[in-house]
Amino acid sequence: MNKSIVSYLVKRFLRFDRDQPFIFLSAILAFLGITLGVMVLLIAMALMNGFDKEFKKQLTIMNYPLTILPKFYGSVDEKLLIDLETKFENLNFSPYIQSSVMVRSGSKLEGGYLFGVNFKKEAEVNSVLKKSIENVGFNKFDALVGKSLMQEFSLFKGDKLTYIFTNVEPGGLSITPKLKRLTVKSFFDSGLSAYDKAYSYTSLSALRSVLHMPSNIYDGIHIYSTNPKKDIEILRKELPVSVAIKGWWEDNLNFFAALEMEKTSLFIVLMLIILIAAINIISSLLMTVMNRRGEIALLLSLGATTLEIKKIFLYLGVIIGIGGIASGIVLGFSGIWILGSFDIISLPKDVYPTSTLPLDLRLLDFIFIVSGAFFIVLLSSYYPAKKASEVDILTVLRNE
């Protein structure tokens, strides 16, 4: 039997058989199941990657790519800042001081952090802050607050906010917390409600005067880097032992580990859809084998080899599977394009970092999905093909 006969029989067995319509129906169900599985997997992985990328983007901004902090026995001072700016001209540095505070407006209270920064330098390391302070002039006791805090407190530009500091100072016969009223000059919108509500910014000189800190001492230095995982190792070698440096990812290890586990779990669960569809391939091919036993036996008696018979049914399964995979890829990319181009689903911005669906299908995920689906199809086609090649010629021809 030559290749042309094998291909002829494959085409013939793929046709609709009026006598055995359930065989064709089972093959169609297998095709649709694989198509659906591949399509859903592509869209789901694109969504998971999109959210992952968006969260990393937002967290990089508000947590800063790199941060230098003092160790328990050290300090971050002006000399260190000048040394770093001299040695690493490709990086942007912004010194800061910070304090835990309670923000009060009328009877409302909200906990958070107040950062004292040089707004010009901070704008170089924080794109959200840079956008919010354009064409805005800040005086000493002005404040920049998050959009969520402004909405919660119903604030407007020019309103006064009272900041209650965790530091206390003596007052007569009692000890009272430090209070300072700041003027709301502008607001920022990072896209993450937790940061917009908890973070406030004022000038370095204002917070220094409240906390009575020396003019050359900082609580830390924010650093902007386009490649923080590489730069952190270079910076670490240049830093004195009295300070430490950390990357934004070190504060969010558990969060991203949970996202990665969720993505893996989703991939496995959705791959089961393809596995269920593959069962239909097995049942369809087995029914074809049972229905075509006489023809198989006749082919074997005329000189066809068991390998050629195996190829016929293996090709049948692979064609159904590859057809389903190809259709799933087309529908999957179409779905990704539609969801990414049109505002079909709107997300609450106070929960998610974006109001539209973020989609990002990585090449590696695409390869895993297609290769995994193909492997399942190949595996499910092999058993029926093997059974077809094991047909007993004498028994079948005697009975049929």
Automatic annotation (TrEMBL):
It comes from the Bacteria. Belongs to the ABC-4 integral membrane protein family. LolC/E subfamily. It is a multi-pass membrane protein. The chain crosses the membrane at residues 21-48, 266-291, 312-339, 359-379. It is found in: Cell membrane. This is FtsX-like permease family protein. Residues 268-389 form the ABC3 transporter permease C-terminal domain. GO terms for biological process: lipoprotein localization to outer membrane.
